Amino acid sequence: MTYTCFNVETKDSVAHIRMIRPERANSMIPEFWDELPQIISELSDGEDARAIVLSAEGRHFCSGMDLSVFAGSNDVSVQGNAKHISRQRASFRTTALQLQRSFSCLEESRLPVISAIQGACIGGGIDMVSATDLRYATKDAFFCIQEINIGMTADVGTLQRMPKLVPEGVVRELAYTGRNMSASEAKERGFVNEIYEDQDAMDDAVLEIAREIASKSPMAIWGTKQTLNYGRDHSVADGLEYIATWNAAMFDPDDMAEAFMAQTESRHAQFPDHRPTRKGI
User: Fold this and answer.
1) CATH number at residue 62
2) How far is CA 14 from the centre of its chain?
3) What's the chain's average pLDDT?
4) Which of 88, 178, 200, 259 could in theory staple to 149 by disulfide, Cβ–Cβ 3.0 to 4.6 A?
C-alpha cells in the first residue's frame, strides 16, 4: 500500500517504517494521524513482523504537529463566534483524544517498537517516541517539548509517558522552559539507549537490535512488553499477579523446549510466527 507520510518494508521479520516527508522535516499532517495507527495495527495483527523500527528520512526526525491538523472546525480562537465557543472547544477535545490514540497504538501493539532519531525531535515527535519501547539517537539529535513555546500545554502523551522514563523534575523543566535537550543529555537521563555518530551507523545498529529481538519467541516478547507496560502503571503486587495470570494463559512450553534444544544443538532457535488475529485475516 502507498502512504503519504510513510514507507513500510518488512525483511527478516523486522518491519521498517520510515517517515518520508524530509522537505517538511516530517511534520505531522492530517494524513499522518490516520496512516500511523493503520500501519501499526496491520503489522501487529499480522504474522510477517516480530519487531518494528520507526525512523525518518532527511536531516530531522520530526518537527512535530503540522498546524493544518487544527484547521477549520478545530479553531478555538477567542476571536470566533462566542455563541459556539463551547462546541469549538468540544471539537478540540475530540481531536486531541483522536490524536492520542494514534500514539497509544505503539504501546498497544504486540510488537516492540524501536525509534531511531536524528536531528530535531520536537513537539509531537516526543509524544510519539515516548510511546515506543526503545529510543536511539544520533549525536546531533535534540528534543524539545515545543508546545509551551507556542502557548499551549502538550496533550498527546509526552507529559504522561516521559515522567515514566526520566526523572519528573527533568520533564517539568523541559515542559516549563521549552529548552532543547541534547542527545548526550537524553542518554544521561535515560531517555535514549545509545548515541551514534551518524544516521547510517544508527540505522544499522537499530536494525540489528530489531533482528535480535525478532529472533526470540514472539509470544515471550509479547508477554514481556505487556508485563512491563502493566507494571509501569500498577503496584508491584498487581504486576506479579498480572504476570502469573499471563503465563498461566499464554506461556508456550513448545517455545521453551525449542530454546533449550537449540542451545544443546548450537543452532539458532526457530519459533513460530504470531498467529494473525481475526482482524488481520
Assistant:
1) 3.90.226.10
2) 15
3) 93
4) 178
* pTM, to two decimals: 0.91
- Do 199 and 241 fall into the same domain? no
Rounded to whole angstroms, what are the CA distances from 197 to 113, 121, 136, 140? 22, 17, 11, 8
For 31, the grid coordinates are 494524513
The position carrying cell 500545554 is 153
Question: Residues 6 or more apart from 143 whose CB is under 8 A from it?
Answer: 121, 122, 125, 126, 174, 180, 181, 186, 191
Same domain as 80, residue 131: yes
Residue pair 213/193 in contact (Cβ under 8 Å)? The answer is no
Q: Nearest 5°: phi and psi at 109? A: -60, 140
Give 68-117 pLDDT, tens digit per residue.
876 654 444 445 555 667 767 777 788 888 899 999 999 999 999 999 99
CA distances in angstroms from 47 to 35, 52, 144, 219, listed in the order given: 20, 13, 36, 12
- Write down the residue that cell numbers 549525536 correspond to: 139
